[in-house]
Design a protein that fits this description.
By secondary structure, the chain is an all-beta fold. It has a single domain (27-405), classed as 6 Propeller (Neuraminidase), CATH 2.120.10. It is 3% helix and 42% strand. It is built from 2 helices and 28 strands. The chain has helices spanning 2-8, 14-17, and strands spanning 42-46, 52-56, 65-71, 77-83, 86-93, 97-102, 105-113, 124-129, 135-141, 147-155, 158-170, 182-184, 190-194, 216-220, 248-250, 256-261, 268-272, 278-284, 299-300, 303-304, 318-321, 329-334, 347-351, 356-363, 366-376, 380-385, 391-395, 400-405. It has a 4-stranded antiparallel sheet with strand order 3-28-27-26, with no helix packed on it. A hairpin with a 3-residue loop joins β5 (86-93) and β6 (97-102).
Length: 406
């Protein structure tokens, strides 16, 4: 299976955005919305105590970075996580294993091995730890191609397989657009990213249908409650709506390939993979996140795809065209580390095909600045953030790099 994955994985995520339409678009673009696109001098951060402070917005022109290889020889690394009290990297390999990387090499036994399907966009796709590091959450597709989100108790450096709890099972109608993110949020709820179920053009209309979990970001309390393996937070946006899945937190997504929370503000950033022509980055402040509709499949980015006319749609903060060698966005993180002071507050992401690490700055929810950062990683699959706020990026070819000051 791993040999097969090595042969087909160059198509990972490419299939996420393939379509029949040949685009004539020419460049990276900003959204066509009524929101102003301005360059601002200030941005707002929220401290851990809930106080709001105003700080100087980052100057992208002052950012100079380089890449330091901190992991090599990995088998299709596709996600990076860090555990409380542990400086080592935990790396998801798409073929079905999680390994620990220290001093650039894999150490010890695998943390976990699961049996997965081997399609282009299938496999072991995401992981995260509880805030105390005692619990491990994984998102994967089983040999039948269906999605599982499971919880394991950690026993030292490995997952206790006897402790496995299946939190969520989702029947996948097609072999692509599985999403794969699983993330403990700042509120200790579990957030799960699911694509629209696959094929092309969202034939099941999953993105705009609130009665399905597909095409969504979900929010659940992973603690068992009553007869259920999890419970629904009372403040989820659709708990009182008839014919809506109460787990839904956001909708209108095609294939959210990595979303993250800004550790300073709790704001949300999403990389949503496009269809034929556009890749998008979505942004929302923490207090406006719940219930957001990001438009798919009525829109691809800010452009009409299947009907348009969504009065409640939120536009992406940034989009890129396929004409500029982009093919499939990989969402990243807002940098909050100390090693690169000029980059604090910059959202860093990339495109799987183009590979150029790119920085975005927002002000009041609008794009203030964007620039490629001058470093490239072939076939970018994911980003990671350590306890100090430093950022890492993985390559399908088997390497992981830390983003360092130039």
């Amino acid at each position: 299976m791993r040999r097969a994955l090595a042969l087909i994985l160059p198509l990972v995520l490419l299939a996420s955005c393939s379509g029949d339409d040949d685009s004539d678009d020419t460049s990276n673009t900003t959204p066509e919305t009524d929101a102003p696109t301005t360059t601002a001098d200030e941005s707002t951060d929220t401290t851990g105590g809930g106080e709001t402070t105003t700080t100087q917005a980052p100057d992208l022109n002052a950012v100079a970075v380089t890449l330091t290889e901190v992991g090599s020889g990995l088998d299709s690394p596709i996600d990076i996580a860090f555990r409380e009290g542990d400086a080592r990297m935990y790396v998801v390999q798409q073929g079905g294993s999680i390994v620990i990387v220290e001093n650039s090499s894999v150490v010890g036994d695998p943390v976990l091995e699961v049996e997965v399907s081997g399609g282009n966009e299938q496999g072991l796709l995401g992981m995260d730890f509880s805030n105390d590091g005692d619990l491990l959450y994984v998102n994967y597709t089983d040999p039948n191609g269906n999605t599982h989100v499971d919880e394991y108790a950690m026993n030292g450096d490995v997952a206790d397989v006897e402790s496995k709890r299946e939190l969520l099972f989702v029947d996948q109608p097609f072999a692509n657009h599985n999403g794969g993110e699983v993330r403990i949020g700042p509120d200790e709820m579990l957030y799960i990213g699911l694509g629209d179920g696959g094929a092309g053009g969202d034939p099941l209309n999953s993105g705009q249908s609130l009665d399905t979990l597909l095409g969504k970001i979900l929010r659940i309390d992973p603690r068992a409650a009553g007869d259920g393996e999890y419970s629904i937070p009372d403040d989820n946006p659709f708990v009182e709506r008839v014919n809506a899945a109460p787990e839904v937190w956001m909708y209108g997504l095609r294939n959210p390939w990595r979303f993250s929370f800004d550790r300073a503000t709790d704001d949300v950033w999403i990389g949503d993979v496009g269809q034929d022509a556009y890749e998008e980055i979505d942004f929302t402040t923490a207090d406006e996140a719940a219930g957001s509709n990001w438009g798919w499949n009525a829109f691809e980015g800010t452009h009409t795809f299947n009907g348009g006319e969504l009065p409640d749609m939120r536009a992406p903060i940034f989009e890129m065209t396929h004409a500029d060698e982009n093919c499939s966005v990989t969402g990243g993180y807002v940098y909050r580390g100390d090693a690169i002071p000029a980059m604090r507050g910059v959202y860093v992401f990339a495109d799987y095909c183009r590979g150029q690490l790119t920085g975005l700055v927002q002000s009041n929810g609008a794009l203030a600045a964007n620039r490629e950062l001058g470093v490239q990683v072939d076939e970018v699959t994911s980003f990671g953030e350590d306890a100090d706020g430093e950022l890492y990026v993985s390559s399908r070819g088997g390497s992981i790099f830390r983003i360092d000051p130039a």
